[in-house]
Every structure is written in C-alpha cells, then in structure tokens.
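Work through what follows:
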Amino acid sequence: MKLLLDTHILLWSLYGNDRISRDVWNMIADTSNDVYYSTASIWEITIKHMAKPEKMLISGTELAEKCNTVDFKMLAIADNHVKYLETLYRKAGAKPHNDPFDRIMIAQAKAEKMIFITHDSLMSDYEEACILSV
C-alpha cells in the first residue's frame, strides 16, 4: 500500500507525537507499505517557518532531510496532480476548505492511488475514497 502523509501527520510521525493512533503507527512502520510525503508539505513548512520561525521551529529543508533519513519517499507535484484538483468532490453544504496544500495532496493521492492519512476534521467532507481521517 502507498501512504501519503498530510503535513501534520508527517511531523507527528517524525517527531513522536502521541496523537497518532497505534493503527496509523503500524501502517507507517509496516515495511510492506511505501510512505510518501508531498513537495506541498515542504513548501507549507517553509512558508510557515519563514513567517514565524518561533512557532514553526523546523525549516522545509530540515523536514526534507529528516524524511530522507527515515526513507520516506518524496512525491513531487505533477501536472496530472493539478488536473485531479478538478475532480475532487465535497459534500453539499460542507464548510469551505481553503487550504491549497491539503487539496493538492488529496489530488496527488487520488491520482497515484494512495491512501492520504490526515487528522484534519474538514477532510471528512470530501467524498474521496483515498482519504483516511484519523
């Protein structure tokens, strides 16, 4: 199985946050699964670190290096992923979801037939089989 970690799940998995359930830890640790992070996560962390380094202590460069040390695979954003943005469906009446980083990662997971693991409560309003909200 191919797993794509949302930015906060990525950070929690690398820096040992107890908000990750045992089931998710087991999925990440299972060597038969391929664990990916998106270029979008590096981009997001870089922006946050540059804006408020006192709140986002790690830079995008440091995050990418840490991902490489644990053998997570980088998933670059491709034209095909951008096209998949147009196929994403949210429930009628759902609260707006204005996070472009999350949306591109959902599109990447959908296009690449991955499981997108997230803790974001707004993700449950997407009717996409690729999303695993934990």
